[in-house]
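tool=predict chain=A
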Amino acid sequence: MSTVRTLRTPVCIIGAGPSGLLLSRLLKLNGIDSLVLERRSRAYVEKRVRAGLLEEGTVRTLRAAGAADRLDREGLVHEGFEWRLDGEHHRMPFAELSGAAVWMYGQQEVVKDLIAVREDEPGLHFGVEDVSVDAVTGDGALLHCTLDGRPTEIACEFLAGCDGFHGVSRRAIPAGKLTGHSRTYPFSWLGVLAAAPPMSPELVYAVSEHGFALSSMRSHTVSRLYLQVPPGERAADRSDEAIWRELDFRLTGGTGALPTGDILERVLVPLRGFVAEPVQYRRLFLVGDAAHIVPPSAAKGLNLAVADARLLAEALSSWYGQGRRADLDAYAGTALRRAWLGQEFSEAMTSLLHEAPDEEPYSRRLRRARFAHLLSSEAEARNFAEQYTGVARR
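tool=predict ok
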């Protein structure tokens, strides 16, 4: 039987998604060591396709982390998008209205870049499938896992839960101390990654009585497209031909103008919202999807996760650098305020874009009235643009 070894680290981070990797990198730049434990393999996290819209604040943070060289070369800068409402085209010039642009750059590319800037440094472990959080106190936390085939006890001064909605970190908060607020929407998105050029240089949000569709992109030759589908539908239920036919129908009115190509990946995305309160318990801090989930309609998930990681890194840097506790104490309030702002806008976007299965004509006309106000009022459009680009959450 192997003897249990003990490792000590100032900060232990569970999860090597964007928030965990970014937090580790920002801490290292401030002279703070950390240990990162990821359940999946490196190959898995580098291929896991997720969000692709980066707010300006997210891009600035990646640059500060020294992880934006490829983003600056390959990322697509967007200053507007197109609404297609029952066949009518309207452009939303959000950069002109808010003073901020967004970048199209896949989450898996962000993960690759963050791994690359620290891959020669110790402390990043993949394939750690048995992490357990055994104690969280006012002085630190104690974990157990298997590292490099050896039973290992990890003692840390701070624990960051960056392991997503299904991770172990949130479960370390006693049930009586944690409240989860959630909403599940009565539809899903069928997302496809396709070897086809985008139909437009900007995103296209198409809304009609036939359902919602979104045309996005990962590059000039690869498109990311989404269809609103009923609850219960599986990713494999439709043929490739049926998917392209429905996308063309919703995005172009069935003109055949939508560029097509091989479908490289398909995924079913449930639409749900979730916020955990609190996001701090003693020396445990929840970050990103471990703390909150937003529906993908407004692309806030990755950007909120980056904002959490930056906030916690700044607080820990103040603690270790100046002995200041105030920023750590303020983490929960600031993170939750931003999370609920992101949740509110995501809810507004989701309600605006989708017709519910049982929607009455009254509700449908209310949604059209909201669109009419958004398109006719500069003040309303500016408010929308500031939320879309993240300016409202600064």
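Residues 326-353 form the longest helix (28 residues). The radius of gyration is 22 Å.
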